[in-house]
Every structure is written in C-alpha cells, then in structure tokens.
Design goal:
Elements (H helix, E strand, L loop, with lengths): L16 E2 L3 H13 L3 H8 L10 H12 L7 E3 L2 E2 L12 H7 L3 H10 L3 E6 L5 H12 L4 E8 L9 E10 L4 E4 L10 E4 H8 L2 E2 L4 E2 L1 E6 L9 E3 L6 H15 L8 H10 L9 E3 L2 E4 L9 H18 L2 H11 L9 H4 L4 H17 L9 E10 L7 E9 L4 E8 L22 H11 L11 H11 L6 H21 L12
Antiparallel strand pairs: 1-8, 2-3, 4-11, 5-6, 5-11, 6-7, 7-8, 9-10, 12-13, 14-17, 15-16, 16-17
Function: Involved in the synthesis of phytochelatins (PC) and homophytochelatins (hPC), the heavy-metal-binding peptides of plants.
InterPro entries: Papain-like_cys_pep_sf (IPR038765), PCS-like (IPR040409), PCS_N (IPR007719), PCS_N_sf (IPR038156), Phytochelatin_synthase_C (IPR015407)
EC number: 2.3.2.15
Length: 501
C-alpha cells in the first residue's frame, strides 16, 4: 500500500537565504563583526524542533525560557527542572494547542505565567523602526530574545501563521535570522527585516488581530517561589470568576461594618475546590538522587521561601485571617482543602505523589500513586539553620520509590524526637495561603465597601506599598497570575497585551 509523506521543503530563495549556504555563512560572519549575534549563542544552545505541527509557539517559548536560564520550579523528567512544550499548559489545554495552535495573546500569557518578563507588540501598536531597535538590542546581548509571529506566505513558504525566535541581525543588509522551530520543514534562514515586518503585519483570522512580536527577558528575581495559582484543575474558572467578579458585589452591602465581616464574606462563599487553585510550592526529589546535603541552589531557594513565609506572618492581615479561622463561629464549610489539610505529613504525602507523577512523566493522568508512609526529619548539617525535610514512600501498584520534600519553616519550639536545635517551626498553613490570596486581589475588589473608615482600614491591610520588596514581588506575581487567568477565562488575552499590574 502506498504511503503519503513529506520530507522537508525547498526554502524559497529569494527572499530567504539559507543559514548554511555560502551566502548565509558570510552574513553570519559579518553580523558577528557588527556585534549583533550575541543572542544567537544562547538560543542555538537550546534550539529545538517543535514536537507537534502546531506547537511552534510552545517550542519557541520553551527554547527562549531555557536560553534565559529561567527555572520552571518543577521537574521535567528524572530529577531535572527544564522547560518543555508539555509543561506550557497553563493558559490553553495542550490538546487544543495540538489541534489548533496557539494565539499570540495566549503565548504572551504563557510567557508571563512561566515567570518571564514580557513586552508584546502587535504591528498596529508599534512601528518598523521600533521593531528594528528591539531586534538590534536583543541581538546585541544574551539577556533578551525576540519571538516573532508572522505569516509564512509573505516569504513564499507553505503554511500560514507561525512563531519562531529571531537569532540575530545583519546591520549592513538589514536582515534578521529566523531560527525556524519547524526544522523538519525549513532550516534557519535570513530574511529582509522589512519583509519580516510585512509578514507580521498580517491579520490572524482566528482572533481578528494583527500578528506581532514578543520581547522575552529574565526577571531580576524568579517570582512565585512560595505561592502560585494553578489553572490545571477544572475549578480554576469558577474560582477566578468568584474572586474577580462576585466578591466586589458581595462586599457592596450595608451590613459590612468590620474587618471580620469582610473576611467572612470572602471566605465562606469560596467555591469548594478553591484549594486546587492556590498552592504553596514545595521542592521534591528522589532519595536515590543522592544524599540530602543540600546544594547551594536548594539552600538559597529555601531561604527565600522561608523569608516570604515569615513576612506573610508579620502582616496585620495575617492576624485577622488567623483569628477568623480559629473563631468558633467561622464555620468554614467551604474551606476543607486548606483548613483541614494543614497536617504536615498529609501535605507531604500529597506532594510526594505529585512529585512521583512528574518524575515518571505521568503528570496530569488519572491518579496512580499513593504515599504509604511519611517521616518528618530535621537536618542541621555543619551548623547551618535547621531544615525541615519530609521523606515519603510512594507506590504505584507495582513499584515504589522514596521521595524527599523540602519544607519552608520558621523556628518556634522544639518538636518531638529532635534535639533542641533541630526544631520544626511553622510551615505554610491555611492562614498563610489565605492571607496571600487576599493580598493578591486587585485593589478595586474593596471599593464597594460603604463604610469609609473600614474601607481605609482594608486598604491599609492589603496595600503592597508597605510590604517588603520580597513579599511585594510575590504578591504582585499572584496578582498578575489572577489577572491573566481571568483574561483567559473571558477569552480577552488577544485584546489586551499590556503588562498586568
């Protein structure tokens, strides 16, 4: 039986020039002399081929994120943290991307959610002069990269909309190097920058919006080290809508007279599964990966998490939240996920199972792992600060493996079984997470409160201006996530590309 198939495409030249051709090599050498190939070396080190025909956006973004050395904060495979297309599933389900591709706006959303600093421009929001300036800037350094969204037809290539990073620039010929992630189809190639602008200045029929380009760079600190929002659970749509739309309406009532009432209104009406929406992030690794003497990287990340936790617990809002949760009248029937799962071994068992799923490559599938036992330990090596470690044994029916979870904590008193210097402190609990959630709500959430004094008291409690830089960044990251998730839920990410908050 005959089998149809395609093996590559002949690159239409002109207008493009094959990077590996004699002319392409000469352009490369000359561009190096101009100093506009500095970004190329990082990108080429992480150059990848899109794994699906419609994954050009995901492949371009994961390539750039890895080139910028942005830590995804979760494992890829084995013990390795690494951006892969399969991990970019926040703003659009992977199955939908596989079938339809991804829009420009949702790729911008993904870049934000991945922790990058992003500036995005459609061609009707910029000029070719600005585009050239950005290409030169990113090509002259290795701390920012440009991803272009363009129409292949302008280059006489087959296909329609496409994403690829720009790997360099030739000032003399005014040409850009496209590192085409569809390497099974076309090789990297040089194109006139003016023609690339024309290819971007094209309307995407799916969104009705023009294409454009993203500037992706590394933030000065990785956000979301302790708290994060998740849209990988079906409940996120309802929770985001409740927080952004319903809470302001609920607070617009005459009987809202004190802070306790405000907190009660917000919390007692929360959707049942809101605990799947906001999480605190724990580090997990296999026990057989080595001994548990922590690396300098692990110590640094844990120290930041612990400082964020400490600063949350020092806020005035935390005291109000804690008082409400401990009140006999709170009756938080809608908050079992956070209130009743503050037991550290139970939390660790859940995290161990999640870690086993990620390490096995089965993340997102039906639950196959169970944690048989957990053991809380305190490490205190070489006089360092005590570190809380929870070890668990996870089984999937046929095999089992040991996992360790690093838990941020702060010392308050001795724990049973440990010496006086090896103490478990306070680890992130429901009141910490709920305090972070309240701080992350946009300022306009509270404007419906009618009592002026109460309104000012609330603004004082939730203001980011009085927070330390570390906690302020953590809160603003959550706020950006919430804003982006809400835009995704409303299908508005392609209408507004502005940096949220």
């Amino acid at each position: 039986m005959a089998m149809a198939g395609l093996y590559r495409r002949m690159l239409p030249s002109p207008p493009a020039i094959d990077f590996a051709s004699a002319e392409g090599k000469q352009l490369f050498i000359e561009a190096i002399r101009y100093g506009t190939m500095e970004g190329f070396y990082r990108l080429i080190s992480y150059f990848q081929t899109q794994s699906e025909p419609a994954y050009c956006g995901l492949a371009s973004l994961s390539m750039v994120l890895n080139a910028l050395a942005i830590d995804p904060g979760r494992k890829w495979k084995g013990p390795w943290r690494w951006f892969d297309e399969s991990m970019l599933d926040c703003c659009e389900p992977l199955e939908k991307v596989k079938a339809e591709g991804i829009s420009f706006g949702k790729l911008v959303c993904l870049a934000h959610c991945a922790g990058a600093k992003v500036e995005a421009f459609r061609t009707n929001q910029s000029t070719i002069e600005d585009f050239r300036k950005y290409v030169i800037r990113c090509s002259s350094s290795d701390d920012c990269h440009v991803i272009s969204s363009y129409h292949r037809g302008t280059f006489k290539q087959t296909g329609t909309g496409h994403f690829s990073p720009i790997g360099g620039y030739h000032a003399g010929k005014d040409m850009a190097l496209i590192l085409d992630v569809a390497r099974f189809k076309y090789p990297p190639h040089w194109v006139p920058l003016e023609l690339l602008w024309d290819a971007m200045d094209n309307v995407d029929e799916t969104t009705g919006q023009r294409r454009g380009f993203l500037l992706v760079s590394r933030p000065h600190r990785e956000p979301g080290l302790l708290f994060t929002l998740s849209c990988r659970h079906e409940s996120w749509v309802g929770v985001a809508k409740y927080l952004m739309d319903d809470v302001p309406l609920l607070l617009n009532s005459d009987d809202v007279k004190d802070i306790k009432k405000v907190i009660s209104i917000v919390f007692t009406s929360l959707p049942l599964n809101f605990g799947d929406f906001i999480k605190w992030v724990a580090e997990v690794c296999r026990q057989e990966d080595g001994d548990r003497s922590l690396s300098s990287e692990e110590k640094a990340r844990l120290a930041v998490k612990e400082e964020v936790l400490k600063q949350v617990q020092e806020t005035g809002l935390y005291n109000h939240v804690s008082a409400f949760l401990s009140s006999a009248n709170s009756c938080c029937r809608s908050m079992p996920a956070l209130v009743h799962e503050d037991n550290l071994p139970a939390i660790a068992a859940s995290v161990c199972c999640q870690g086993a799923e990620i390490l096995s490559g089965k993340s997102g599938l039906l639950k196959v792992f169970s944690c048989r036992e957990t053991c809380v330990k305190c490490l205190n090596a070489n006089g360092d600060k005590p570190i809380t470690l929870v070890s668990g044994t996870v089984a999937d029916g046929s095999t089992e493996q040991g996992l360790d979870v690093l838990v941020p904590s702060s010392q308050v008193k001795s724990c049973c079984g440990c010496g006086p210097s090896n103490c478990i402190l306070m680890y992130p609990a429901g009141n910490d997470v709920l305090t972070a959630l309240l701080l992350a709500l946009p300022p306009e959430t509270w404007c419906g409160i009618k009592d002026n004094k109460l309104l000012q008291d609330i603004y004082t409690l939730v203001s980011t201006d009085t927070l330390s830089t570390l906690l302020q960044e953590e809160v603003l990251h959550l706020r950006r996530q919430l804003h982006l998730l809400k835009k995704c839920q409303e299908n508005k990410v392609d209408e507004d590309l502005g940096v949220p908050f």
